[in-house]
Amino acid sequence: MPSLRLGNIAPDFEAQTTTGPIKFHEWIGNSWAILFSHPGDFTPVCTTELGEVARRAKDFEKRNVKVIGISANGLDEHEKWVKDINEYGGQVGPTDVQFPIIADPDRKISTLYDMLDEQDATNRDAKGLPFTIRTVFVIDPKKTIRLTLAYPASTGRNFDEIIRVVDSLQIGDKNRVTTPVNWKKGEDVIVHPTVTNDEAKTLFPEFRQHLPYLRTTPLKVE
């Protein structure tokens, strides 16, 4: 099966989750979605990540983003793990995991999304199945994959960066702009190359031309 690429439609699937059964595309609806995977339950790095996602629920909600985890265990283990996540996360700040976690003990969905570590022969569970790579997919309301990230098992994900990318994608979809290096919401953006200078005078009256191909502008965003 070929790897998924940016611009591909995210594969649809049905799954059991900690909040009930879902059909993925139907669950996304008209929202953005972040699907993020874990090698297994009761793993330390992933426990910290899920707690962070729970604490930042309002950040995702105001961006119309639904989050959903997936781990290569069954629902019983997931439900026990959620208790650990809430307990540990509460030491950092109020933590209440409300988002769904997909049960994928047979790796069907992980295989569909090419999230298995097939290269490392030692990265296997007790049944000999490969563990899931810690992957992130950002999917837009059209069910198009807009971002993919794969992290090593040793390194926790940076959800500030994931949210930053969502901000960039959403602003770019609404306006004819792109975002520069290290950009953060509220900072100047880049006028898209397809916008002529005459158009830019109307669309972005405060734009500045730095190079023939590089123009920046302030952009008011909510």
Structural description of this entry:
Strand 4 (65-71), helix 4 and strand 5 (101-103) form a beta-alpha-beta unit. The mean pLDDT is 90. With 222 residues, the chain is α+β, with helices and mostly antiparallel strands. Strands 5-4-3-6-7 form a five-stranded mixed sheet, covered by helices on one side. The protein has a four-stranded antiparallel sheet with strand order 8-9-11-10. A two-stranded antiparallel sheet has the order 1-2. The chain folds into two domains: 8-156, Glutaredoxin (3-Layer(aba) Sandwich); 175-217, Antioxidant, Horf6, Chain A, domain2 (Antioxidant, Horf6, Chain A, domain 2), CATH 3.30.1020.10. It contains seven helices and eleven strands.
CATH topology heading of the largest domain: Glutaredoxin
Strand order of the largest sheet: 5-4-3-6-7
Q: At the first level of CATH, what is the class of the largest domain?
A: Alpha Beta
Shape, per Cα inertia axes: elongated
Query: Which range best describes the helical content: under 10%, 10-25%, 25-40%, 40-55%, 55-70% or over 70%?
Result: 25-40%
Rg is 20 Å
What separation lies between the terminal Cα atoms? Answer: 41 Å
Total of domains:
2
Question: How many strand elements?
Answer: 11
Uncertain segments are: none
**Mean pLDDT across all amino acids:** 90
The largest sheet is:
5 strands, mixed
Keywords: Antioxidant, Oxidoreductase, Peroxidase, Redox-active center
Function: Thiol-specific peroxidase that catalyzes the reduction of hydrogen peroxide and organic hydroperoxides to water and alcohols, respectively.
GO molecular function: thioredoxin peroxidase activity
Organism: Galerina marginata (strain CBS 339.88)
